[in-house]
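Purpose: get a first structural picture of the assembly so the mutagenesis plan has something to point at.
Setup: two entries, given in the order below. No constraints added.
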Amino acid sequence: MIFGLVIFWLLSSFSSQHQLRVLSFDDFEPHLHFKNDTTYVINFWATWCAPCVEEIPAFEKINREYSGKKLRLILVSLDMPEQIESRLIPFLEKHDVSVEVLVLDDPDSNSWIDKVDPSWTGGIPATLVYNNKFRSFYERSFTYDELKQIVKQKID
Amino acid sequence: MKTLGLFFILLLLASSSLFADGYQVGDKASDFSLKNIDGSVVSLSDFDDAKGFVVVFTCNGCPYAVAYQDRLIEIDKKYKEEGYPVIAINPNDTDIKPDDSLESMKNRARERGYTFPYLKDETQEVYRMYGATRTPHIYVLEKEDNDLIVRYIGAIDDNYQDASEVEKPYLANALDALLEGNEPDPSFTKAIGCTIKSK
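Result (structure tokens, whole complex):
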């Protein structure tokens, strides 16, 4: 009975939190061009990228602070498809990541890097912040304070 | 006075970021002397018979670098014969990435059977001079008189996941073009990779 409950709990937490969408670049691209009054913070990362993993708590904290505000954070994972089950999902569970996560699976990155931002050389972490009036791309890591500084100007 | 100081600081920043941009296609590249995993010191001027070089900034741990290590061996085997040997350079700071020490590089080269030099950019001056930002990051150089001219910068191909699914072998196409006396097209590509680690 308890065993059954544990299994049920595992399954439900898995499916409710981390039912990951895996998108090609064409399917992902609209996320870079939403036109409404929300500010978007789109972070490109992967579980194997140490500086990416280090900055996730900052994104989590901003996400909590601005819940209910017009801010949407998306963590775009570039983990390899065969590592989604073995690495990415366990990582998200372990760190209880609540920010929206999706997987961008499109190996011909030369065809889409410039469409995210022409200044991007291809290194991660990289973060795009945009809204109706503002658009900026950062190929670098963020601390909480630095991220807060940018978001604060756009939202408050 | 204060504004003048600020002006000079800005000027300094602007000029340093200018250098940080590294090489563009068509630029002259500088030679270097770096320690190889066999204990020797390697310079591009050591290769009298080469027509040019495939300089690859790569490392041990990055999944993209790992995904490409066998393909680099194939490229080296094929194009060394034609005059374009692979020269691999590991630019990562070993304090941040202990797995990129000369000892670990030796092990990796032995395990995988690297057919090319695997050099350590200990002072990290070479990757900065070239403007490499990620691993793997390719620079194809062509000898022209006494100069080394950058002919191609970028990715190895368009599918890191599966070599059999590659549709655009950018690097091989660039080398074939040079061997036929043509300019590589494209001569510049991008790819997702691991940021080069420095303090």
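The mean pLDDT of chain A is 90.
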